[in-house]
Amino acid sequence: MITAENVTNYLEQTILKRKADNGGFLSSIAHKQPCPVATSWAILACLACGNKTEAIKIARMYLSTLQREDGRICLDENYTAAFWPTALAILAWQGATDYKNQYNQAIQFLLKTTGIHYKKKADSPLGHDTSIQGWPWIEKTHSWTEPTALSILALKIAGCTEHARVKEGLRMIMDRQLDRGGWNYGNITIFGKELFPIPDSTAIAISALVGSVSRADIDKSIYYLKSQIDKIKAPFSLGWGILGLSAWNERPANIEEKITESLALQKKYGAFQTPLLSLLLIACKAPNGLPGIFRTES
Amino acid sequence: MKVTIRNFISTQNGLTRRQFLWGTLAGTSTLALGLPMYRLYENGFRCDTFIARMKDYQLDISGIVRSGFQELGVSPAEIKGKRILLKPNLVEPHSEKPHINTHPLFVRGVAEAFLHLGAAKVYIAEGTGHCRDTIYILEESGFSEIIKEDRLPFVDINYDEVFKKANAGKYTKCSSFFLPGILKETDWIVSLPKLKTHHWSGVTLSMKNLFGLMPGSYYGWPKNVLHSMGIEQSILDINATVKPHFAIVDGIIGMEGDGPIMGTPKASHVIVMGRNLTAVDATCARVMGIDPHKIHYLSAASGRLGPISERNIRQVGETIKSVRINFALEENMPAHRYIRI
Q1: The complex's ipTM?
Q2: CA of A78: which chain B residue's CA is closest?
Q3: B46-336 is classed in which CATH architecture?
C-alpha cells in the first residue's frame, strides 16, 4: 500500500524497474522500447534522489545514441520533426562531463531552431503576437507555451539566460499570458474572446519565468494556479503545479499526501507512465522547483 | 476545396461496383455536358442515418442507441465478439462547462448498447488536443466515474505506441500518418462527437472528431501539424485513412456560436447516428440549420467518402424537419458566413 510515508520510495523503485537493458527507460512496462522522454524524466528523477549514479550514467549514454547530427533528440527515429524531447535531454545531460559535446550540440540546436512565425495581418482572429519566436512541438509549426517554456528552462539552467533567443522566448511566454491569469497551450484570444487557462501550461510557464520577471508580472497566474492546486489529483498537472508554485515560494502543504492520492488514480487508469512518476518524485524532492535538483550534483 | 474529376477517378479502387458504375455514368455525363453530375449522384453512395429525440442525459440512451442499431441494420451477429473503440470529444477540462465535451453518460449509454449486442470489449480512447493532461480532463469532465464504475479501459492516444499508415486521402501533402496502436487492437472505430459549431471549420462533428486519433506526441498540442496542412484537408485524409465504422453524435446538449470551446450550450435534444460519417455529419449540419454543401470538408467528402445530398441519405427515426433547431452563427467568423440553409 502506498502511503505518504513510503511514497518516494515507491516512486523510486517503480521508476528503476522501467529501466531497459540498453540503459534507456520504458514509458511503461507494456512498452517494448525505451523512449527519450521517459529516459530524460527518469534521469531527472534519479538526480533529484541524488544516489543513482550508475543508472544515470547508462541512461545518459542511451540518450546520446539517439542524437542526430544537428544536435536534436527526436521522439521517434522515424520522425525527426518531433524534436521536442531535445530540451528534456539537455536537462538530463546537465552537469555530465562525459556528454559535454552532446549537451552543447543539443543547446546549439535549440538556439538556432524556432517555429513558424509571421507578422500578423490586421484582421487576424488571433490575439497573440505571432511574430515573437519561441519553440514548437513539431518542426515547421507555430511555437506554443510548453515547448517554449521547457526550452527556456533547459537553456537557463545551461547558463544561456542572457541569450537573445531565451529573452525572446520569455517575451513570447509573457505575451501568451491570459488577462484573466494563467496560460493554456498558447492562444490567448480567438475572434476576440479570451480562452481558458489550464493548470499544467500555467505551471510550466511560471517555472520558466523564475528569475526573469517580477512576481507582480504574473501574480494573477500564480493566484489562478493556487486556486486550482488543492483539487488537482491528475499527476501531470499536480507534479508541474507543485514545481511551479515551489519555484515561486508558494510550495503547497502536504505534498506527499497529495501525491499519494494522485497515485491512487492508477487503480482507475492503469499504471502511470514513467514521465509522470518521475515528475511526481521530483515534485517531492525539489522544494524550490525543478532547477533546484541540479544544485547538488557534483 | 472542390471535388474534381481527377481525384474522383483516383478513388475508384475504394468504391463498390455499383458506386463505380454510378461514378462512371456521372463522370461521362460531366465530360459530355459539362455538368457536375457526379455531385448529384455522389458516386452512387446511399447511406442511412438515424435521428432520435433525447431530452436528457438521465434517460435511456442505451435503449435509443439500440433502436438506432436496429433501424440501421446493425445486428448482434455483427457486433458479437467485436472490440469496440469509442472516441468521444474531450477538449478541455472545465467541469462547469459540460457542453464542451461529449457527455460521460452519453458514452456510458453507447458502451452499454454495444455490450448488450455482445461486444467483447469496449475501450474509450482519446488524444486530447489542447491539454496534455488527459487524466485531468477525465477527472474534471465526469469520465472518471464511468471508467471506474463501468470498468471501461481508457487509452490515452497521445502517448500510445504508434504505427505508420500511408495516407489514403491525399488531400494534404502528408504521405503517411502515425496512428495509435490501439487501432490495431480494435475491430470497430466509433466516433462520438458533440454537436457543435466551430470557428475554423463551421461545424465540428464525427469526422473532425477523429483529429483526436492523432497522437499529440507526434502532432503537437494543439494538433498544429494538421492545422498547418489545412484543417479541412486533414479531416478528409484522416477519415480516408482510418476508415471509421460508425458515428453516434451527442446532440442532447450541443454548442452554438464560438465553438469548440467558447460557444454557448444549445439544448438540441437529438442523437444522430449512422455507419457513414459523411452522411451523419451532413444530417447533423441540417439539424443545426446549416447547409452541408457550404461546409468545405463535407462538400469535398461528397461522393468520395460518402453522400451529403438529402436525396442520397435515407433518414430513419425522426425527420430532420421535426428536430431542426438553428445553431447561432458568428458573423465575424468567415467559416460561419453564408452557411445557413
Answers
A1: 0.95
A2: B164
A3: 3-Layer(aba) Sandwich (3.40)
Local structure of B154: helix, strand or coil: strand
Secondary structure (DSSP) of B279-316? HHHHHHHHHTTB-GGGSHHHHHHBTTTB--SGGGEEEE
| Strands B194-198 vs B188-192: parallel, antiparallel or unpaired | unpaired
pTM exceeds 0.80, yes or no: yes
The predicted-structure confidence for A185-242, as pLDDT tens digits, reads as follows 999 999 999 999 999 999 999 999 999 999 999 999 999 999 999 999 999 999 999 9
Distance set, CA B201 to CA B167, B212, B233, B325 (Å)? 21, 16, 11, 19
Closest alpha carbon within chain A to B130 = A185
Q: Are B93 and A198 in contact (CB < 8 Å)?
A: yes
Judge if the upstream peptide bond of residue B260 is cis by omega within 30 degrees of 0.
Answer: yes
Q: Which residues from B are below 8 Å from A233, CB to CB?
A: 139
For the segment B8-66, what is each residue's pLDDT rounded down to a tens digit?
A: 323 333 445 555 555 555 555 444 544 455 567 788 899 999 999 999 999 999 999 99
- What's the angle, vertex CA B99, arms to CA B229 and CA B54, rounded to 5? 115
Strands in B22-168 per DSSP E:
47-53, 83-88, 121-126, 154-156, 162-166
Q: Which three cell numbers stand for residue B205?
A: 462533428
Pick the CATH number of A7-293 from 3.40.50.1110, 3.10.450.540, 3.40.1500.20, 1.50.10.20: 1.50.10.20
* Grid coordinates given for A80: 525527426
Rounded to a whole number, what is the distance in Å from the CA of B147 to chain A's nearest CA?
A: 7
**What are the residue ranges spanned by the domains of chain A?**
7-293
The x, y and z cell numbers of residue B260, run together, are 469548440
Whole-angstrom Cα distance, residue A83 to residue A72? 6
CB–CB of B139 and A233 under 8 A? yes
Flag if B133 and A199 touch (Cβ within 8 Å). yes
Is the separation of the CB atoms in B208 and B201 below 8 Å? yes
- What is the enclosing helix (H) or strand (E) of A145? helix A145-157
Residue for grid cell 463535407: B298
- Give the nearest partner residue to A144 out of B133, B162, B221, using CB atoms: B221
d(Cα A129, Cα A137) in Å, to the nearest integer?
Answer: 18
